[in-house]
Amino acid sequence: MNAPYKAGRPSSKGSQIKFKFYETATVSVETVNLKRSVSMRLYNGNEWVSVGNVTIPVNFAIPKENDIIEVRYLYAYKGGSLYQPTYLGVRTDADENDCDLKQLKYKNA
């Protein structure tokens, strides 16, 4: 490749821009934690699997236990949790059948 690279961020006149490739997932609220966060879970066909916590921003109401919510994340760890999850809101058009573990995109090892 013959692309020029100049050190610095775009605000300092750099010519490259970093772009994060986010994914979204529909998850169920497992429990409501203290300090504006909830734990999330997905169904793997046999049982519910915890996939980490997400912070609820102050401009959103805190969802209730068993609510279906939408989150954005960078990637998922196999057998683990979502990396950098961001709360997007409650899903009123989805149910627990949409909370499938197969929807996740995993980081390549």
Can you describe what's shown?
The chain is mainly β. It has one domain: Nucleic acid-binding proteins (OB fold (Dihydrolipoamide Acetyltransferase, E2P)). The chain has strands at residues 23-33, 37-43, 48-55, 68-73, 75-76, 82-83, 86-90. The strands form two sheets. Strands 3-2-1-4-7 form a five-stranded antiparallel β-sheet, with no helix packed on it. Strands 5-6 form a two-stranded antiparallel sheet. β1 and β2 form a beta hairpin. The radius of gyration is 17 Å and the shape is globular.
User: Biggest sheet: strands side by side, in what order?
Assistant: 3-2-1-4-7
**First and last CA, distance:** 25 Å
The backbone outline, from C-alpha atoms, is globular
SSE sequence, one letter per element: EEEEEEE
